[in-house]
Each structure stands twice: as structure tokens, then as C-alpha cells.
Amino acid sequence: MREAYQEKVTAHLKDLSTKLADLRAKAGPAAARLKEVSEATWKEARPGIEQAWQELRGAVQRAANSVGGGQPYEPEATRSADANKATIRRMIEAFNTRDLTFIDDGFSPHFVLHTALTPGWPRGLEGARQLFTAMLTTAPDVQGTIEDMVTEGEKVAVRWTFRGTHTGESALTGVPTGAPFTLVAISIYRFADGKIVEDWGVDVQWQSGVVWE
To answer: Cα-flanking dihedrals φ and ψ of residue 87, to 5°?
Structure first.
């Protein structure tokens, strides 16, 4: 009786194995067909998906522009850097036109000047004002030019060239020589709340009309 039971189980397992093999044989072509259909469907649908993505990007850009008053969207850091560079350009324009009203708009009340030539320089707006007036007293005809400008975070580095005639005396230059000069300087400005709060300047050399290269 036990042998009969074993034979029955063996026959059942053999039957299951045969059915499983048959299912595998039938599923193989079906799986391959499914893969072909999937690839064909993706190939057909891809242009529409890409177009929808571009339309979505355009809608997001238009929404950002409407919020920003029609200006293309830019990250906050980029806008701040551009605004700081614009302030530096306004500063040299004000300097060249002797418009000292810029000081109240462009400098922080906490402004600090850091240079080896100016120990103990007054702080705040008065310090910024004295920096302007000292340079203009030294050379009433002086004009400044931005040669290079680089931003990094809240700081702007500027390579300047100033040209004029040393006809006046100031705390920066001493006794006038009456000679034309070219002054090259590199300054690093730190901004806070859109205003210049610190200025680091390198030592410079007064030269008689010769550009430093």
C-alpha cells in the first residue's frame, strides 16, 4: 500500500513538472512579445512626453517671471552678486562725477576700511566720505576705471586703475608733486543688506603716468 502511494505521488509530481515546462514554453514568446510592445510603446510615446516636459518647464519659467516682474528667474545668490557688482559700478560712476550722495545709499553705517595706509581710519558713513574726499583732494582731476571684477558669495573683488595729477595734499599721499600718476589698486568689498560694509585694499604704488602691468 505504501508503494502504491509513492507511485501516485511520483506520477503527480511528474505531471506537475510537465505542466510547468509547458507553461514556460508558452510564456517565453509572450514575454518577448511584451518587451517588444513596451519598447514600441515607449518609442511612440517619448516625443509627447518630452514635449509635455518642455511645456511644463516653460510654464514654470513664465510663472517665475510674473512673480519677478517679468525678469528671467535667477537664484537668489546670482541676483545678490549681480546687485553687488552694480553697486560697485554706481560707486565709481559717482566718484568720477563727484556725486557724494552715493555714500549714503551704497555704504553701510557700519563701514570699516582695512588698509595698511589707513590705520585708525574713521568708521561708518563718515569714514567712507573721508575716503572719497581724500582721493579727490589729492587729485581733483582723478578718474577711476574698473579693470576686473569678481564675485564670491557676499564679497566683490575689484582691480582698479586711477589716473590723475597729484596737485593736492591729503592723509593718503602727503606733499603734492604736481606730476601725473597712474594708481593701481585691488580691493575686496564685503556686502551686507546690499551695502558695502567692509573694504580691504592692498598697498599701492604711485607712478608717474606709467600703467602697472
So the answer is: -65, -40
Closest CA to 135 of 100, 108, 182, 173: 173
Q: What is the pLDDT along the chain (213 residues), one digit of tens a residue?
A: 656 656 766 776 677 677 667 766 666 666 666 566 566 676 676 776 777 766 776 666 666 666 555 555 555 556 788 999 999 999 999 999 999 999 999 999 999 999 877 788 899 999 999 999 988 988 899 999 999 999 999 999 999 999 999 888 776 666 778 888 888 889 999 999 999 999 998 756 555 545 444
Cβ–Cβ < 8 Å for 132, 103? yes
Q: Which residue has the cell 580691493?
A: 187
CA 91 – CA 132 distance, rounded (Å): 10
Q: Where are the domains of the chain?
A: 1-73, 76-207
**CATH no. for 76-207:** 3.10.450.50
- The set of cell numbers assigned to 213 is 602691468
Q: pTM for the full model? A: 0.60
